Amino acid sequence: QVQLVESGGGLVQAGGSLRLSCRVSGSIRSIDRMGWYRQAPGKQRELVAAITSGGSTNYADSVKGRFTISRDNAKNTVFLQMNSLKPEDTAVYYCNANLRSLVGSSGYWGQGTQVTVSS
Asked: What DSSP string describes 73-85?
Protein backbone atom coordinates (compact mmCIF):
# COMPACT_ATOMS: atom_id res chain seq x y z
CA GLN A 1 0.00 0.00 0.00
CA VAL A 2 1.31 3.42 -0.97
CA GLN A 3 0.72 6.52 1.12
CA LEU A 4 1.52 10.17 0.58
CA VAL A 5 1.55 12.23 3.75
CA GLU A 6 1.74 16.01 3.52
CA SER A 7 2.67 18.50 6.20
CA GLY A 8 3.56 22.14 6.58
CA GLY A 9 0.37 23.97 5.70
CA GLY A 10 -1.11 26.69 7.85
CA LEU A 11 -2.07 30.33 8.16
CA VAL A 12 0.40 33.03 7.19
CA GLN A 13 0.27 36.73 6.43
CA ALA A 14 0.83 38.04 2.94
CA GLY A 15 4.53 38.24 2.21
CA GLY A 16 5.31 35.35 4.50
CA SER A 17 6.69 31.90 3.79
CA LEU A 18 5.70 28.28 4.27
CA ARG A 19 7.40 25.00 3.45
CA LEU A 20 5.32 21.98 2.48
CA SER A 21 6.61 18.43 2.70
CA CYS A 22 5.24 15.21 1.26
CA ARG A 23 6.68 11.82 2.13
CA VAL A 24 5.86 8.73 0.09
CA SER A 25 5.82 5.41 1.92
CA GLY A 26 4.88 1.82 1.16
CA SER A 27 5.96 -0.85 -1.29
CA ILE A 28 7.69 1.47 -3.76
CA ARG A 29 10.08 0.42 -6.50
CA SER A 30 10.76 3.84 -7.96
CA ILE A 31 9.31 7.34 -8.06
CA ASP A 32 9.31 9.33 -11.27
CA ARG A 33 7.60 12.70 -11.40
CA MET A 34 6.45 14.37 -8.18
CA GLY A 35 4.37 17.48 -8.03
CA TRP A 36 2.27 19.88 -6.06
CA TYR A 37 -1.22 20.90 -7.12
CA ARG A 38 -3.67 23.25 -5.47
CA GLN A 39 -7.39 23.78 -5.47
CA ALA A 40 -9.08 26.94 -4.30
CA PRO A 41 -12.80 27.04 -3.46
CA GLY A 42 -14.89 27.02 -6.60
CA LYS A 43 -11.88 26.46 -8.85
CA GLN A 44 -10.35 23.49 -10.61
CA ARG A 45 -7.26 21.79 -9.30
CA GLU A 46 -4.17 23.24 -10.95
CA LEU A 47 -0.52 22.31 -11.19
CA VAL A 48 1.75 24.46 -9.04
CA ALA A 49 5.13 22.81 -9.59
CA ALA A 50 6.59 19.47 -10.61
CA ILE A 51 9.98 17.78 -10.50
CA THR A 52 11.29 14.68 -12.24
CA SER A 53 13.55 12.06 -10.71
CA GLY A 54 16.43 13.74 -12.52
CA GLY A 55 15.67 17.11 -10.99
CA SER A 56 14.03 18.90 -13.93
CA THR A 57 11.36 21.31 -12.73
CA ASN A 58 8.44 23.28 -14.08
CA TYR A 59 6.23 25.87 -12.45
CA ALA A 60 2.93 27.59 -12.97
CA ASP A 61 3.50 31.14 -14.21
CA SER A 62 1.74 32.51 -11.13
CA VAL A 63 4.37 31.09 -8.76
CA LYS A 64 7.58 31.44 -10.75
CA GLY A 65 10.25 33.25 -8.78
CA ARG A 66 8.37 32.74 -5.49
CA PHE A 67 8.03 28.96 -5.08
CA THR A 68 10.75 26.33 -5.28
CA ILE A 69 10.17 22.59 -5.58
CA SER A 70 12.83 20.11 -4.51
CA ARG A 71 13.07 16.46 -3.57
CA ASP A 72 15.11 14.09 -1.45
CA ASN A 73 15.16 10.84 -3.37
CA ALA A 74 16.75 8.94 -0.50
CA LYS A 75 13.79 9.83 1.73
CA ASN A 76 11.08 9.68 -0.98
CA THR A 77 10.11 13.21 -0.05
CA VAL A 78 9.20 16.27 -2.08
CA PHE A 79 9.19 19.83 -0.76
CA LEU A 80 7.61 23.09 -1.81
CA GLN A 81 9.19 26.25 -0.45
CA MET A 82 6.70 29.08 -0.80
CA ASN A 83 7.94 32.64 -0.36
CA SER A 84 6.28 36.02 -0.85
CA LEU A 85 2.90 34.42 -0.37
CA LYS A 86 -0.18 36.22 -1.65
CA PRO A 87 -3.84 35.89 -0.65
CA GLU A 88 -4.51 34.31 -4.04
CA ASP A 89 -2.21 31.43 -3.05
CA THR A 90 -4.85 30.34 -0.55
CA ALA A 91 -5.93 26.79 -1.42
CA VAL A 92 -5.70 23.17 -0.45
CA TYR A 93 -2.35 21.89 -1.68
CA TYR A 94 -2.07 18.29 -2.84
CA CYS A 95 1.02 16.21 -3.38
CA ASN A 96 1.13 13.89 -6.39
CA ALA A 97 3.58 11.16 -7.27
CA ASN A 98 3.89 8.93 -10.33
CA LEU A 99 5.57 5.79 -9.16
CA ARG A 100 6.13 2.07 -9.60
CA SER A 101 4.98 -0.15 -6.78
CA LEU A 102 4.72 -3.90 -6.39
CA VAL A 103 1.38 -3.83 -8.19
CA GLY A 104 2.42 -1.66 -11.11
CA SER A 105 2.75 1.98 -12.19
CA SER A 106 0.24 4.62 -11.18
CA GLY A 107 -0.28 8.11 -9.87
CA TYR A 108 -1.04 8.72 -6.21
CA TRP A 109 -2.39 11.69 -4.28
CA GLY A 110 -1.95 12.94 -0.77
CA GLN A 111 -4.86 13.99 1.42
CA GLY A 112 -4.18 17.70 0.99
CA THR A 113 -2.99 20.43 3.32
CA GLN A 114 -4.63 23.82 3.74
CA VAL A 115 -2.65 26.97 3.04
CA THR A 116 -4.33 30.24 3.99
CA VAL A 117 -2.72 33.59 3.27
CA SER A 118 -4.27 36.59 4.97
CA SER A 119 -4.04 40.11 3.57
From this structure: GGGTEEEEEE-S-
